[in-house]
Amino acid sequence: MTWRIPSYIPLPEDFQGFDPCRRTPQVEFYTYERHLPHWRLPGACYLTTFRLNDSIPADILQAMRDQLKMWKHKLLEAAAKHEGQLPAEEHLAWVEFQRGHLLKLESLLDEGHGECLLRNERHRRLVDTTLHHFEGRRCEMMAFVIMPNHVHALCRPMAGQDLEKLTGSWKRHSSESLNRMTGRRGRVWQQETFDRIIRDADHFRQAVRYIAKNPFQAKLQPEEATVWFNNAIMKSNDWTSGP
Questions:
Q1: Strands of 46-51's sheet in order across
Q2: Four-residue CA torsion sign, 79, 81, 83, 89
Q3: pLDDT at residue 32 greater than cutoff 80
């Protein structure tokens, strides 16, 4: 069995992208949470990544956090000089840095640091169940992949739902289940998540393929990771079930 990459990726109903350089008062905005900058827009889709607590060596993680802290101040200063609106050139520079940061993060995660608790299928099944728990009530899930030491999920929070609280619930519930199954105590997930707001249709399709390709690029066998797509993607590619 091989990993499947979707050829046809339909957009979700009422899809909307996000252009932070276009001025739309009281609708588009950005916030900063802990170590990482986050863009937020009601009704938008997000590619979010959260990882196991031991998945990146501490010294490397601190260096990456220092870089992000520098960008946080840089973006705040740039926006403050332009009535709260981020200039296009600053946004493009941030997107480029973010792309490089994600590639570095992905490379580090795929190196398989830490215990890789989720290489065990029983453990992944707990996370899978958790990711589906709020489907239709708090979020619309488009695709996700559960790797040995991290998770990528493409989702759209429903009206009135907060992405931070949603991912916090995923991590909290799965932590409780994993600790109960393994007989352990303590933190399972790194506190911070990394997420990107989906800019447009091309970005949405890139995100789906990014999720689909992750196990293949990490040279994993089907029993080492779990990939899931929603019904729209499955039907568009004439798939029934399986990875």
A1: 194-197, 46-51, 150-157, 139-146, 226-229
A2: negative
A3: no
Task: Decide: helix, strand or coil at residue 80.
Answer: helix
Residue 69 C-alpha from the chain's centroid? 20
Encoded amino acid at 142, one letter: M
Long-range contacts of 118-122 (CB under 8 A, 24+ apart): 118/52, 118/146, 118/147, 118/148, 118/149, 118/150, 118/151, 119/148, 119/224, 121/223, 121/226, 122/181
Torsion of CA 216, 210, 50, 19, to 10 degrees: 170
Instruction: Please choose, from the candidates 34, 12, 2, the residue with its C-alpha nearest in 3D space to the C-alpha of residue 207.
Output: 12
pLDDT in tens, 188-222: 999 888 888 898 999 999 999 999 999 999 999 99
Domains in the chain with CATH codes: 29-54+115-236 (3.30.70.1290)
Quick: pLDDT tens for 140-176.
999 999 999 999 999 999 988 888 899 999 999 999 9
Instruction: Specify the 3-state DSSP secondary structure of 139.
Output: strand
Residue 26 has pLDDT above 50, yes or no: no
Evaluate if residue 82 carries a pLDDT over 90: no
